[in-house]
Amino acid sequence: MANKKALLVGCNYPGTNAALRGCVNDVFSMKKLLVQHKGFPESNITLMIDTDSRYERPTGAAVKRALNQLIASSNAGDILFFHFSGHGTQVPADASDTEELDGKDEAICPTDLNIIVDDDLRDIVEKLPADVELTFIADCCHSGGLLDHTALIITGGSSGGAGGAGPSLMDLMGAVTGDGGAHGRDFKPRELPLDMLCQMLTQQSGKRVAPGNIRQSLGGIFGADASKIAMGALSMLQGRLAGGAGGAGQRSSMGMVARMLPVLLSCMRRQQGGDPGGAPPPEQFQIRPPGTKPPPNQQLAEEKGVLISGCQSHETSADACPGGDASKAYGALTNAICTLVNKSPEINYYDLVYNVRLYLKQGGFSQNPGLECSHSNSEKPFICNTTSNFADL
What is the value of pTM for the model shown? Predict the structure, then answer.
């Protein structure tokens, strides 16, 4: 029989300069929604938070492992749900690649700052079987385009970006009141700027991390657990060092580093499950320019999952704290979704995101959530129909 399974991740980054207050609360709010309105058994919901040692800490390695396991263990007809609440960031091209200085890759930031970029997420979701459904909610900054879908249903700014005439749910609810708005509330963006990310990685590792070397630094700090962009950066560096020019001393140093890189790369490949007997095909390391979308044949097929992003790729998402009370803090996107689903549990994806945009705009938030999926998926009930007959219900 089919099952409903979820992975909920909340990162508050306690004790750091990037601390947030609403992300862990979001996890429990979403868990309540899944159990009460969507029939998810509590035993099938995995929580990862960084404020309570009773739960697994959401490191980059742990999140990727859990998401891979969620998809790999799925069977025909299963309903899967992944929610990330925390910081988002954008990683630029290597400073030495002058033609790519404006290129950026969107990424989510686990609590150990071992970032997971859009390429990593797309590679994982690509394994989703055709008859298994996945909903991914990214309540973080720069979350638009995290799955590199071929189809964008709701995107762009709020001035007509959603297209068409809006449904009547917001009219029935009336103006936003209470804790739903940003006016007069303590809120901050769920964005980890690049300079702060580098600063925190430097403090954490004891090694100098700068925007120009962040890709290589991620590989050095996290090894086999690092994002694929780190593997690509090390591979490209290997090629440059192997053919480097300069004085005798420089050539000697470069040659020594070049000799060490294959060892590091080989270890990383073996730990990631690659062929221990030899190097992978060269195309495995032909990383596309940062910030550019892959060609259509490498983008995620429109029917592969549904992404609801907290904002567009160039925007920020809000972490709100009414009256400064951390116990009531929330992510603007998560709070809006829970509020609307509580009002209309059977709402479909399109109507939900359309109304979330209206809800946030009326509440004084500037972010523009997005919906990325196929047209047919956009018309389905959010996550699933609550009357579905599942074995665990």
Answer: 0.80
Cα dist from 96 to 151, 213, 214, 242, 260, whole Å: 33, 9, 12, 16, 21
84 neighbors 108 (Cβ within 8 angstroms): yes
Contacting residues for 212 by C-beta, under 8 A, at least 6 apart: 94, 95, 96
Q: What is the pLDDT of residues 15-65, one digit of tens each?
A: 999 999 999 999 999 999 999 999 999 999 999 999 999 999 999 999 999
129 to 43, 74, 126, 137, 384: CA distances (angstroms): 23, 8, 8, 19, 17
Amino acid present at 189:
P
Task: List the alpha helices (DSSP H) in 12-77.
Answer: 23-38, 60-72
Residue 393: CB atoms within 10 A of its CB come to 13
| DSSP state letters, 283-317 | GGG-PPPTTSPPPGGGSBPTTS-EEEESS-TTS--
Query: Of the listed 23, 37, 83, 87, which one is catalytic?
Result: 87
Mark whether 141 is an active-site residue: yes
Say if residues 10 and 27 touch (Cβ distance below 8 Å). yes
Token pair for 376? 């047919």
pLDDT tens readout for residues 74-125: 999 999 999 999 999 999 754 444 333 336 889 999 999 999 999 899 999 9
Range 16-20, long-range pairs (CB < 8 A, 24+ positions):
16/200, 17/196, 17/199, 17/200, 18/87, 18/192, 18/196, 18/200, 20/86, 20/87, 20/188, 20/190, 20/319, 20/329
Q: How many CA atoms lie within 13 A of 54 on its CB side?
A: 0
Amino acid at 262: P
Active-site residue identified among 11, 23, 140, 141:
141
CB atoms within 10 A of CB 22: 29
Catalytic status, residue 37? no
Largest pairwise CA distance in the chain: 76
- What's the rounded Cα separation, in Å, for the pair 351 and 197? 36
* CB-facing half-sphere around the CA of 120: CA atoms within 13 A: 25
Task: Check residue 135 and report its DSSP letter.
Answer: E
